[in-house]
Each structure stands twice: as structure tokens, then as C-alpha cells.
């Protein structure tokens, strides 16, 4: 993703293209991590394992649901997220790797509610692609897993 607002799919950098391809795979339900023979997982683009340096990387599917490891609620956003606030950003364990993204509670509109989506450490979530309200750029989004109810505000 570039900071100049250019569409990652149209970017000329191999890094941006590989990230856009990963987002496309995630949107199609084919999310993956790149994993070395030692089991270290990371996200593309990668040429070598960032933990052990192995150049032998394979694509491994992400688990269908992940577990929220930590989160932060943002009330004063950067300009790129101005229309999204308040929102929650979470780090979620999806098996071979962890993903960082924005928590969405499933409500298409919050009916003018200025509360961030409810989230708690340990919540089960699924991963998808969402859009920033500010500029429509794609981002990683987490939603409560089927059968899960969003955490209550603490």
C-alpha cells in the first residue's frame, strides 16, 4: 500500500503488486501466509523467512477464524482514517501468522453511533477486506466469527 493514495493494484512496485494480490486472495477467501520449513509464518511479499533466513517459503492457508491477541481503540485518527473514527485496530492470531486490521462489528451503518465496535482479547473473528470510510482504500477487516457476539463495552 503506498502513502500517496495510489491504488495498490496499479502500483508499479513489486511489493505493492504482491500486497494487492494478497488482499485479492484474502477477499476471495483464499488468505494465506508464507511459511518456512521451520514453521515461521509471515505475510507477503517475502523472499526469505524474516526469523531464520530460509529462502524456502510455501503458501499455507490461514485458519478460518483467528483470536484477538490485543487491540486499541482510536478516537483521534490520522487524516487517512478521519471519517472512520472511532475504530478499533486489532492484532489477531491466524495460525501461522498474526494479522493487523480494523475491527468491524458487522453493522453496515452504526446509525450515527459514535462508539467503536466492541472487541475483547480472546474474541474469535474472521478476516475479510473492508474499505476506509475516508477514501475507500482497501484494508484488512475483522468481524465476529459465526456464533460469536461482539464483546460488551467495558
TrEMBL record:
Signal peptide: none
Residue span(s) of domain ChsH2 C-terminal OB-fold: 61-127
Family annotation (Pfam families): OB_ChsH2_C (PF01796)
Superkingdom of the organism of origin: Archaea
Gene3D superfamilies registered for this protein in UniProt: 6.10.30.10
Classification via PANTHER family: BLR3430 PROTEIN (PTHR34075)
Name recorded for this polypeptide: Nucleic acid-binding protein
